[in-house]
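P.,

For your records, the input lines for the assembly:
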Amino acid sequence: MNIGDAAEASGLPPKTIRYYEEIGLLQPDRRGNNYRDYSGSHIHSLRFLARARSLGFSIEDCRQLLSLYGDRCRASADVKAIARGHIEEIDRKIGELEQMRATLSALVDACHGDARPDCPILEGLAG
Amino acid sequence: MNIGDAAEASGLPPKTIRYYEEIGLLQPDRRGNNYRDYSGSHIHSLRFLARARSLGFSIEDCRQLLSLYGDRCRASADVKAIARGHIEEIDRKIGELEQMRATLSALVDACHGDARPDCPILEGLAG
DNA sequence: AATAAAGGTTCCAGCAACTGGAAGTTCAAG
DNA sequence: CTTGAACTTCCAGTTGCTGGAACCTTTATT
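Structure tokens returned:
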């Protein structure tokens, strides 16, 4: 299967798939014409990667998850630990964003937002 | 005022301050020895930038906000529009993260997380 | 059979917003 | 006078791709 079809099948752009190969996430076979050749299990891995990335896992997390995915003797505890760590990270980010949102939205509410130059938002930023 | 003191006064690292200069956010004076020289109003701008960045405004947003901040004839509506746009962006990000969190946390809850290889998280990622 | 279009290949550059490090001034203290 | 801190510039690396150039192979059309 050519990279274009692999892209179609996995939902990842060809560029991204080549990039994943470059950083050693996934090594496809090569055909006589030097074209990459993706098997069913490659496609499976690509879809796995696509989902893991869409859930916000870092590339390094993905590397570990993929390795655990391919390890028939893995302990589910290892996977769970990575996922838990990632949830904590997500919670941290959500917290930060909500903090920003609250501050910002207080400033926006205080601003009349018309043609006059007086502006509580800028004043708030100026401190 | 030297860059080290400006860093101290603004809370931004010297590297960041130089970077802001490089991208044209803020032009300090130069002394005879080629050292950068920051005035009170420079410090004010740096603190403004530090706060705006900590609220998640992009550098380009900051550039506009800083320009509005320095414009005595600005309309507060312009500022409010930028801030509103940014809040929307924050809301979008929060939404995405919460979506991820929900999916991920369902997977984590389904995973027994012990020494056995059976793992709903990996199965979920595999699709 | 010739050719054009589509899809493959490599490599290099760039995005955001810094950050680290090297190599070379200049300044302040003892 | 020397040591060390703080300053200068420039280049490389971070994360995770993405765009483009230059070239090769396959496929479709004439």
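Two observations worth noting. Chain A has two domains: 1-73, 75-127. Residues 68 and 75 of chain A are 8 Å apart (CA to CA).

Regards
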